[in-house]
Amino acid sequence: MILALLASAVMMAQNGTASAQLHSGNITTLVYPLGYLSFDGSTANYFIGGGDASTLFANGLWMANSNHASVRKFGVNGNDYQPGPLPIDGSAIADEAVVAAFNRVWFVSREMIDNHLAHFRDAGYAPEEAIASWPGNGPADYASQLAPYVDCDSDGVYNPMQGDYPLIRGDECVFSIFNDAGNHGECGGQGFGVEVHCMTYAFNHPEDSYSLKNTIFVHYDLFNRSVNSYDSTYLGMWSDFDLGYAWDDYMGCDVKRGMYYAFNGKEVDGPGVGSFPGVPPAQGCIILGGPWQVADGKDNSRVDIALIESTQYPNQYAKQYLEQFRLSDGSIDTVAVNYHAHDFYALDYNTWHFSPDDYVGNQCLNGCGFGDGIVDNERMGMTSYQYYDNSTNSIYGEPNVASDYFNYLHSFWKNGNHVKYGGNGVNYGIDPQMIDAVFMFPDDSDPWHWGTNGVVPMVNPYDWNDFTAGNTPGDRRGLGASGPFTFTAGGHQQFDVAYTTAGGDSTAWSSVNVLRSCADEVRFQWQRDTTSSGRPFTYVAEPGNNGINDGIKAMSLSVWPNPTSGWLTVIMPQSGDVQLYDMMGRQLMSIQAPAGAVSLDLRVLPQGIYLLRANGHVQRIVKK
């Protein structure tokens, strides 16, 4: 039965593409079926501004606990991942035909969607291959909904000839599905039975900011298709940054920004073909959002309001600034306070929560979903960063077996010793206290000393970096990790990262300073789901401009309260359809509403972001 259903899918896969080129305003890179960028098996393909020098050689998703490991590195010795989804019966064994059908990527852009919606009713129209074959639905025994799509006819089946279309992020995206249930040639570990949906995307609007034009985003949805729950699991993003010439780079991390990065170890890159002219750029990987935190029924805050309001707190500037958010009833607008968290950080970094051993609370420093008015949407950030050398060193060189990968994901070296603060981080670190550290080379980005659990190092407490450690520039690899978390049987996790590149105007370190500013902008736009040019990250075409619901005249649409914890009121200037979708494109509600005020009961829906369509408009709704 499954083979019959997949026969046409295999043909579509053969007509599809094994990789696709993705463009932001200034970046061009290749994307492959297992979700990785740049490396085509022999050369790097992550180019800046149309030049021939690449900044990223290879990257890949890592996940591991003490008993399981699945990673993507170079793929020279085989892969830990294979294409395609997994059955939902808990067997975690993919059919060979499914693997063959999904051994490809789907490239889709907003322009392709607009063209499809303008012409799908035309006689003789044929959708572009990626839209026609978009894997919205799984075959028998697999998840019924796979790739996200907008279900315009609300029948639960992806059918582009009925006006359905892919729900994409960015101006263009590359989508693929893969799993870790096959042979593990890369690390030799045991797989989890996890299915991964990967959407790599970019923006290229002329009015986008410099930071957005230099950024590639990657969004992962991870589904545990096994019958097992996995404790103490970590997710990580591994990167082999090669800034032009590969053997003269330094690396570091920025704890506050949840970013690790590479910068040139010399003021002039090179020598050799592929070197950068002028001031070499810096490139960073930002962990925008890691696994979900355990629900506690709260909207946990980023700013410590109780601390600021206490009589013992001495910073009067922070107290005065907090008063600007005092409401008429005497309460504090906590959502507004957390929206301006960086202002409070500038006044006094102690206003951000940090307490040794407070694993959950400390995540507010670089996680997401904190203090935004939504209960239990908090996600971890970058909880550790580790670098290692391109070498065979038995302690800090290339990982070889599954335990090496797990050690690197939670700040241990290959020999089982914890990373130490100072020097090169090996167990003879320069600090006489021999402090365990989870962030290597944080420079001045960790004023709370989160990386040493609140212990203030005696040596270089705010100045530990690859340069001050006295290290020689070289071919560095870095790993930003997020965890630990419990991946429950049948559970769903998400992982969001962004690769951002920036160039300075004087020294190699000036590129890092520009990169930090760009990282702030990228995170700000991602968290608010709005680009610098004013568009949402997820593209939902407006009715009335594309042949769908043409009879509905586009008029102003008013909804309140938004965010809402239960009932939502929609003001309809005239009668028409009201539809509510989740962010996977699934229609949750559809009613024929009269003109006037219409109340929608959203109490049964979980907290999250939804899309409301009515009267020719699309409105983003937040359920808290």
What would you note in describing this structure?
- The protein has 624 residues and is of the alpha+beta class.
- Among the domains are: 2-227, no CATH class; 305-365, no CATH class; 543-623, Immunoglobulin-like (Sandwich).
- It is 15% helix and 27% strand.
- It has helices at residues 2-15, 96-101, 110-119, 129-132, 210-213, 305-309, 316-323, 334-339, 341-347, 402-409, 508-527, and strands at 20-23, 27-31, 46-48, 56-64, 69-71, 82-83, 106-109, 149-150, 165-166, 168-169, 172-179, 194-202, 215-224, 230-241, 249-254, 259-264, 282-289, 384-389, 476-487, 492-502, 538-539, 558-560, 567-572, 576-582, 587-593, 596-601, 608-614, 617-623.
- Strands 6, 7, 11, 12, 13, 15, 16, 17 and 20 form a nine-stranded antiparallel beta sheet that branches. A five-stranded antiparallel beta sheet has the order 5-4-14-19-18, covered by helices on one side.
- A hairpin with a 4-residue loop joins strand 24 (576-582) and strand 25 (587-593).
- It is globular and about 75 Å long.
- The two termini are 43 Å apart.
